[in-house]
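A.,

Following up on our hallway conversation. Structure tokens first:
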């Protein structure tokens, strides 16, 4: 007869699909807050590896972050402002910024960026 899993129940440390999602995006997949925290610390590295660079899972913000986020602040903005990006993430952000500037220069008419920059500095 198949074994029935109750909400919050784990078998030998494995997480149910609902429990894998909860630390990433939030949710109530664990029977107690202590189970949630225990699951986070047990599976922390694999959960961190499963999110996009310059972001953190919901459990990281809930259990590890000791500070205040601004309203509507994105993960990357908060992590940059607080100096919490990893060296790899900092490098990636620099690369993204260079790519963004290159795309802007390609799309803008010749001299437009320089004129706009000079205009902004003058005001």
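Then the amino acids I'd put at each of the 123 positions:
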């Amino acid at each position: 007869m198949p074994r029935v899993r109750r909400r919050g129940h784990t078998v030998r440390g494995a997480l149910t699909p609902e429990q894998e999602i909860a630390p990433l995006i939030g949710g109530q997949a664990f029977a107690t807050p202590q189970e949630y925290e225990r699951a986070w610390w047990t599976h922390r590295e694999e959960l961190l590896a499963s999110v996009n660079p310059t972001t953190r899972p919901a459990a990281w913000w809930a259990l590890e972050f000791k500070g205040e986020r601004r309203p509507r602040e994105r993960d990357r903005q908060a992590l940059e402002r607080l100096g919490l990006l990893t060296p790899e993430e900092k490098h990636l952000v620099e690369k993204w910024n260079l790519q963004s500037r290159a795309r802007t220069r390609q799309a803008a008419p010749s001299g437009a960026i320089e004129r706009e920059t000079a205009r902004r500095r003058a005001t």
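The chain has two domains: 1-70, 86-123. Curious whether your intuition agrees with the design.

B.
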